[in-house]
Every structure is written in C-alpha cells, then in structure tokens.
Design a protein that fits this description.
The chain has one domain: 3-Layer(aba) Sandwich (Rossmann fold), CATH 3.40.50.150. Helices cover about 35% and strands about 20% of the residues. The chain is globular and about 45 Å long. Its EC number is 2.1.1.33.
Length: about 230
C-alpha cells in the first residue's frame, strides 16, 4: 500500500475528523454558496479535476490544505485576485466560515473543498498547480502517530508532482520537532530546491497566534519545484 492509501485500502488519515455545529451565518452561507463554490472529495475517486472548469477559466491555482477557519485563506485570495485559491478542509464550521467570507468579500477566485486533501491531490493533473500551502498542519507529536503527518516523503512527492516547474510548496509549523522533520523531508526530495529565507508573505493564522502565545517559534519552509 502507498503512504497515502489506495481505493482498495483505507488511507492513513493526516487529520482528526471534525464536524462541529455551524452558526446560522455559516449555515446560510453554505446553503447559498456551496452549489457554486463547493466541491465534495470522495475517497477513492480518481476522476480528473478540471481546474479551468472549476474556476471558470484558466488561472494559476493555489491549493490550500487545511485552512482552519479560513480567515487567512480569504485574505490571501482577496489580495491576489489573479490566482485561483482552492482550499480543502474537513472542519465543518471552518468550511461555513470561509464560504461566508467568500460571499461577504465577493471572492470570485475562491473554491472550497470538503474531504481528505490527499484524495483531492490525486485528482489534480501533474504540473497543474502554481503553489501549495500547508500552514500549521496537525503535528501528531507522539512518535507512534508520526506516520499520520502530512509532510512525509510519499505525500511530498505527490504534491511536488502537481506543481508546475518553479511552483512553490510553502509549509509552516509552530512545533520545532516537526519543523526539523519537515525540513529533512523537503531537503531529501530530489525535485525540490529550497528558496532563500524571506518574509513569508502570508496573513497570521489562528493556529499561529496560539503557538506564539504558548512561546513556540514559527518556522516557514518554502521550496520550489526544479
């Protein structure tokens, strides 16, 4: 079995399944906007995803994996109208909040997917993405859970293949041990090259604020496909 699983075997989950209750604002946004902006990810579905059709035309696309409540994703999409932003999440209130923000900010360049991000990645054509963002994924700190971490060799290879040449994989974490493991994994991928240290150019996320408040350092890692 591959690290991300197959249609015949249950994949290794890189997230805690979370539902939660939507507020009336979120529920109203979901009802109004999901038919136009939403995409349901089904395990084992390998139907190719036409990004140009999804966004109503050919645009460079950024895949945002695990957007949380979506505030940072909405801010990036609003500041970057020339690219399409495809966010994928499993947290129901977060999905509702991002849809609400998309409506309030009139974000025509934003789409929202629900489900396992790596299942979605399998449906995206190689070389189709301009960038992939993995900001503050679950660190799975216990050693026996490290196999569930999103940034591991098999997943990184798959994400890199979906990037265009020169496309950027941008990861961030507030767990120092995971930052070291991320850097080792990214450095070891033969198709990625590290980018020089520079301002990360992304809005602060809720998880980042929480980590900073707890005294944990924030690490950003940016690599380009060779």
């Amino acid at each position: 079995m591959s690290e991300t699983g197959t249609a015949e075997a249950r994949p290794i989950r890189t997230f805690h399944p979370r539902r939660g209750r939507m507020s009336s604002r979120h529920a109203d946004a979901h009802a109004a906007l999901w038919p136009r902006l939403g995409l349901t990810v089904t395990d084992g579905d390998r139907t190719p995803l036409d990004l140009a059709e999804l966004f109503g035309g050919p645009v460079p696309v950024v895949l945002e994996i695990g957007f949380g409540m979506g505030d940072a994703t909405a801010a990036m999409a609003a500041a970057d109208p020339g690219r399409g932003y495809l966010g994928v999440e499993v947290h129901t209130p977060g999905i509702g909040n991002l849809l609400a923000l998309a409506g309030e900010l009139e974000l025509g360049n934003l789409r929202v997917a629900r489900g396992d991000a790596m299942e979605l990645v399998h449906r995206i054509a190689p070389g189709a993405l301009d960038a992939v963002h993995v900001f503050f994924p679950d660190p799975w700190p216990k050693a026996r859970h490290h196999k569930r971490r999103l940034i591991r060799p098999g997943n990184v290879a798959l994400l890199r293949e979906r990037l265009r040449p020169g496309g950027v994989l941008h990861c961030a974490t507030d767990w120092p041990e995971y930052a070291v493991a991320m850097a080792e994994t990214l450095d070891a991928d033969p198709g990625l090259r590290p980018l020089p240290a520079a301002p990360h150019g992304r809005p602060e996320t809720k998880f980042e604020r929480r980590g900073s408040a707890a005294g944990r350092p924030i690490t950003d890692l940016r690599y380009a496909r060779s």
